[in-house]
Recover the amino acids of this structure.
């Protein structure tokens, strides 16, 4: 993760963010010590707040990793709510399943193992919130399936959309080009109203306003 906010400001934001309880902090520590690219407490809190704000009962996450962002999202659901979270790596999915047990959300979290592009084909909406955090080169392929599976009034939240600022400069890597295409298509989509927040590596928040 390449931060785009000045490091002292970033540290200030992270210091004031809700860190969850001991179990979630333990997953955060695991993420840091083992080098997992998790969203951290400030973005985790943002996901939690956004899910609460739309009264989410059904959430889709693409990119489970060790279940850190998934826990923030699942904790915003009511008891009968559901987080469906997609992870391409089966070993990683096992770690997430264990962590969902530790953070108390296992009954609300369903992990689907497979590549998001393929899993989405058989996954029916509507969802109240979709969080996209898969490999960046894969962003354009999942945009339309995500928008289609959102209810009107639902949110599509996407991580790393500024890619260290490269999207705004002359970056030509496959990831930079893919994220740029994703951001531009989202900005022009008449079904969506989108804004990019310069939190961490850039977080896009887009509401579906019509089918
Ligand atoms: C950036 S990490 C997700 C971090 C997680 N959202 C968090 O903050 O706790 C991306 C995860 O998505 C998985 N992944 C990457 N591309 C994928 C794809 N196309 N389909 C499914 N999973 C994918 C990776 O194996 C990795 O575990």
């Amino acid at each position: 993760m390449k931060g785009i906010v000045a490091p002292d400001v970033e540290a200030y934001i992270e210091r004031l963010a809700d860190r969850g309880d001991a179990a979630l902090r333990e997953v955060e520590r695991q993420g840091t010590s083992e080098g997992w690219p998790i969203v951290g407490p400030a973005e985790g809190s943002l996901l939690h707040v956004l899910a609460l704000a739309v009264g989410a009962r059904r959430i889709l996450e693409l990119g489970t990793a060790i279940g850190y962002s998934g826990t923030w999202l699942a904790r915003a659901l009511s008891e009968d709510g559901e987080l469906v979270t997609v992870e391409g790596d089966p070993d990683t999915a096992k770690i997430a399943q264990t962590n969902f047990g530790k953070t108390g959300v296992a009954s609300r979290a369903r992990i689907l193992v497979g590549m998001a592009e393929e899993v989405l084909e058989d996954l029916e909406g509507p969802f109240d919130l979709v969080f996209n955090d898969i490999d960046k080169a894969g962003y354009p392929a999942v945009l339309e399936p995500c928008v289609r599976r959102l209810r009107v009034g639902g949110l599509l939240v996407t991580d790393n959309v500024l890619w260290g600022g490269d999207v705004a400069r002359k970056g030509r890597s496959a990831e930079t080009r893919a994220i740029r295409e994703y951001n531009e298509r989202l900005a022009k989509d008449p079904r969506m109203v989108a804004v990019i927040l310069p939190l961490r590596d850039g977080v896009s928040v887009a509401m579906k306003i019509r089918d």
Notes: The radius of gyration is 16 Å. The domain at 7-208 is CATH 3.40.50.150 (Rossmann fold). The chain has one domain: 7-208.
